[in-house]
Amino acid sequence: MAVTEQQQQAFIGKHLAEAQVAVELQDEDMVLNIGPQHPATHGTLRVVVKLDGERVVAADPVIGYMHRGYEKLTEYRSYPQVTTLINRIDWLSSFANEVPFIHAGEQIMGIEAPPRAVYIRTVLTELSRIATFLLFLGEMGAQVGAITPVFYGFRDREYVLNLIEAATGGRFHPNFNRIGGLKDDVPAGWIAETRRMMDKVFESCDTFENLLEGNEIFLARTKGIGIIPGDVGKGYGVSGSNLRASGVDWDLRRDAPYLAYPEVDFKVWTHPGGDSWSRYWVRLQETREAARIVVDLLDRLPSGPVMAKVPRIIKVPPGESWVRVENPLGEMGYYVVSKGATGPFRVKIRSASFSNVSILPWLLKGVYVPDLITILASLYFILGDIDR
Amino acid sequence: MTAAASTLALEIPWGVLLGAKVMIILTLLPLTALILGYVFLMKMMAHMQSRLGPMDPGGFHGWFQLIGDGIKFIQKEDVMPADADRRVFALAPMIILISTFVVYAVIPAGPRLVVEDLEVGIFFALAVSSLSVIGVLMAGWASSNKFALLGALRAAGQLIAYELPLVLAVVGVIMQAGTMSLQGIVGAQANGEIFGWGAVGNPFVLTQAVGFVLFLAAAQAELTQTPFDMPVAESELVAGYQVEYTGFRWLFFQMSEYATAFALAGIAATLFLGGWYVPGVEGTAADVLGPLVLFAKIMAISFVIFWVRFTYPRFREDQLQAMAWKYLIPLSLLNILVTGILKVVF
Amino acid sequence: MPDDDLTDAEEPAAAEEPAAADEPAAEEPAILPEHVGMLAKLQADLGDALVEAVSNHGDLVVRVRNDAWHAAALAARSRLDCEYLSFISGIDWTSRPDPPNWDPDAPSSPVQPKEVTYGAAGSDGRFQVFAVVESTDDKIQVILKTDVDEADPHVASWTDVYPGADWHERECWEMFGVRFDGHPSLRHIYLPGEFEGHPLRKDFPLLSREVKPWPGLVDVEAMPGGAGEEAGDETAEAVAEGGE
Amino acid sequence: MGLVEQGKIPKPLTWLMNYSRKYSLWMYQWGLACCAIEMGAALASPRYDMMRLGVIPFPASPRQADLIVVSGTLTDKMAPALKRLYEQMPDPKYVISMGSCANCGGPYWDSYSVTKGVDQIIPVDVYIPGCPPRPEALLQGVVLLQERIQNEEMGPRWRGEPIIVGQPGAHDHLPETAVAVSSA
């Protein structure tokens, strides 16, 4: 992992020189255009790769096929409308998307959500983390060729979606957060049901572990593939599980506490490997950890209201605020600038996948085409989160 | 039908007989492909994934699914890429289908139930089944698509690498049976003895267990099924060499894939599990029971093939080659050596 | 969020006043104690190129001169150990010209104030480029800002300091038209190559909005038993949720 | 073939051919945004299991597909690719537009980069509203499409004429719901 500054600069310099010319190439090299619609890119990423046989000489990811102009659209919308919209950035963990934006608004307004709301937010954030990672665990198998895990991933994810739906009314895009709290309290019986479902989550984690971890082929396909040294990852802004899998002990839930995380005792999993296998392993452990956090929080759920006193029409006073949180995919942040209107003046959305994927030109150099697929799968990005 | 054809051979003109044989295989080929596809691809896979698989088509557990697929693919537009080498493009699926088709001719299903009992049956079967490489290469090249070309080259490399362990795994059986005729091998297993005890015969799986496993592994690769499905790897090469094929041409690919699976399972059942032979049943009764027994064995072997297919991730190209050259081939050579020594000793 | 107090909310109002290019701490938004050391380190490297610094909601915001943008990155990276680049982006501080059919009374159409004001740490022009860098070891972050000339928007590229700046700068160029000197290739990143204009500039019109400010309004029905502002707001929110 | 083009084929044969097409919808997954995950859930989640209806999600290549489900936001940058891909599919082919974005732009109706509706690019057979539609909605969309296919006449299809929903005459026999929802 120890990469000196000089080495890193050399890497970067080379990549910058080469990655740019990937599109115009000589005749002897084969140029393969993977995507924008390709089974491996789960969405609309396009990777133009220059091949020498099956080895990638240079790769140039082309993004923007899912660019919807979020930052412009937020300028035309009121705060509740923006909340609706930003559910759809990282569509696998919509609830977690809302939290930082709502926080930014609350911060500028100087409002605090009641403790019960904070706890429920935390629980729901962790539930969306579980839902996201369960899909990842299955998807990872599918991308290296094992079809069955993805079905298990979808099956077990359904349990968690049910919980989110029962609490928020939205299976996919809850739009449950309000500035000052939550739209509603959780329904009766939800807590007991959630506890029961967490047992299922532990079970399915074991299933994935059994299916893939002991599998020689899976190990051969993922170990040592796509190594991101921690220093390089940081320079590219790689965050979340991807960075923790490179041995960087950094989790915003612990290091920049928000929600109810300071009151929970949880372990931040890291793995020194930095390869695809480490990323898989870290996410597997984090799924379990998230389930533990949920159970822990449910035991101590405070009572009280779920909504602070806020005016009916939200007008955020002038000011600006930068809030970043640890989303399932990594560091997600909103830089909200308000000028006192019913809508934000400017929202800069810092999404995790954008930075996570920006390392691809560096990472994909010299790998085989099958490894490219493994790397893409293990980085785990959501196209909406890249392009916004 | 086959029985009738064989017994009445003297009275039927040669041309009619050949026609009848071709017709029989032509019916068998899609039928077996259908059965494997439906039972394993549609239903078994679904149940392994805690799903149901097709239920609506046909009303009862989706039995109509693959028949419907067949009729539908015939109705589809026949698209040929503008840059394709048209003749080669059209010929490729035929060659693959024919290579499967001919294998069917030598697999015995009963004492008299065999289309052609060749002296060099097993040799012939393995030789023609490797013809499919040419079809694959033709398909990949003619499609004028980079994914297809990559897939075809992967397939060619893989099929050639695994042809060797496939043949070498069989050599042990041939040595033990002392014949290359498939009927002869069934006979040898029926009359064979294990350590002097011959009540149930000697299915070679008992003495050639290593060969059996090697054969299955190599067959898996021949079929380009997971974990050796690099040539058609969906998440990488979209559909590999088949990427540009539509309608009935693609149907041929699919059909030959499953028919080949059936054929290779049939060869494995014949070589290692005793084929159609049922202890104590002879004559016409064996002609009736034999196909059933053989079918059951084939299904059992196919089950394993597809089980692995739906469970395992796939190898990378270099790992796959390493597996063939570093493990399977030396192991099969060792198997031959040991078989030879034992053959001489006992 | 929970550790924020109400006084924090007041401070941007102060920072909003026209930017004065002198040292901070003249106004009440004092530098938080934990930021003093960080600021001193940056100050040592940047000297008078550091225009203004404030603590905003617990984050240190530092504005540097345009020509010191690259030096600021180096300083943050070497002095503060901020190896992690969160993002680079821009902001257009001018107010948006309202579309022709814009209804300022419609609750779903936020109307921004017309006068041009600036945010934390001020600005002296229309465009600003800002970035967040973090240190994963020391768990600190700095928000760096710099002003960009409106007529010829350009600033130094960070690609040689943070490799990840590559894509962020391409995005910023595409969205605001800010050139990054020294960037290896400023190409379109999100939009097709033939796209014209820079969408995040405030004067870039959304054509659909020009035609019809808010299509959801046709669906609004009077709330039973409710009239006035409250009901109107609720309806608008319901429309926003239902329509999207 | 001439007979088919004139629409003169025996009823049982028409029935069989339609029935086969209806229950053999090989589906190309054009997963774009949020809806793609719901489409994935409809296919892969045992609770929905779209394969029950004879929708086979295997083909990775459009050449082998009959049905394309456009699920999610189509951007102007992506639109040419969709057009091209649709043209690569062999006839007869069907399109389901899943979700508000694919139907009309949805929440991005005022965006500068989003195509406001897939039907500007390719003809659509069934529209499924929702943001995203639940997997059940996609199942119903498939069932509606199947009803249409079952009642299809071979003649126009083989002549390559576009089938227009709601056109008087050709599709009067369709169930009310099919027309209503598919043109909603």
Sheet with most strands: strand arrangement of chain A: 1-2-3
SSE string of chain A, helices as H and strands as E? HEEEHHHHHEEHHHHHHEEEHHHH
Instruction: Look at the structure and give the mean pLDDT of chain A.
Output: 82
Report on the biggest sheet of chain B: none
Secondary structure category of chain A: alpha+beta
Structural class of the secondary elements of chain B? mainly alpha
The residue-averaged pLDDT of chain B reads 79
Low-confidence stretches of chain A: 16-27
Number of β-strand runs of chain B: 0
Ends apart, CA distance between termini of chain B: 42 Å
Condensed summary:
The complex is a heterotetramer of chains A (388), B (346), C (244) and D (184). Helix content of chain C is 27%, strand content 19%. Chain C is of the alpha/beta class and 244 residues long.
Description of the structure:
The complex is a heterotetramer of chains A (388), B (346), C (244) and D (184). Chain B is an all-alpha fold and 346 residues long. Helices cover 68% and strands 0% of the residues of chain B. Chain B has 13 helices and no strands. Residues 1-27 and 227-244 of chain C have low confidence and may be disordered. In chain C, helix 2 packs across helix 3 (69-78). Chain C starts with 5 loop residues before the first helix and ends with a helix. In chain C, the strands form 2 sheets. Chain C has a 5-stranded mixed β-sheet with strand order 1-2-5-4-3. In chain C, strand 6 (154-156), helix 4 (165-176) and strand 7 form a beta-alpha-beta unit. Chain C has 2 domains: 27-204, Beta Polymerase, domain 2, CATH 3.30.460.80; 206-239, no CATH class. With 184 residues, chain D is of the alpha/beta class. Chain D is built from 8 helices and 5 strands. In chain D, helix 3 (34-44) packs across helix 6 and helix 6 (135-150) packs across helix 8. Residues 165-184 of chain D have low confidence and may be disordered. At the A-C interface, helix 1, helix 2, helix 3, helix 4 and helix 9 of A face helix 1, strand 3, helix 4 and helix 6 of C.
What characteristics describe this protein?
heterotetramer; B: 346 residues; C: 244 residues; Beta Polymerase, domain 2; 5-stranded mixed β-sheet; 27% helix
SSE topology sketch:
The complex is a heterotetramer of chains A (388), B (346), C (244) and D (184).
Chain B: H1 2-7, H2 14-48, H3 65-75, H4 86-104, H5 121-129, H6 132-142, H7 146-177, H8 182-191, H9 209-222, H10 234-237, H11 247-272, H12 283-311, H13 317-345
Helix pairs in contact in B: 2-11, 2-12, 3-11, 4-5, 4-6, 4-11, 6-7, 7-8, 7-9, 7-13, 8-11, 9-11, 9-13, 11-12
Chain C: H1 6-15, H2 33-46, E1 50-56, E2 59-64, H3 69-78, E3 84-92, E4 127-135, E5 140-148, E6 154-156, H4 165-176, E7 179-181, H5 207-211, H6 228-243
Parallel strand pairs in C: 2-5, 6-7
Antiparallel strand pairs in C: 1-2, 3-4, 4-5
Helix pairs in contact in C: 2-3
Chain D: H1 2-5, H2 11-22, E1 25-31, H3 34-44, E2 55-56, E3 67-71, H4 79-88, E4 94-98, H5 100-104, E5 126-128, H6 135-150, H7 154-159, H8 176-182
Parallel strand pairs in D: 1-2, 1-3, 3-4, 4-5
Helix pairs in contact in D: 2-6, 3-6, 6-8
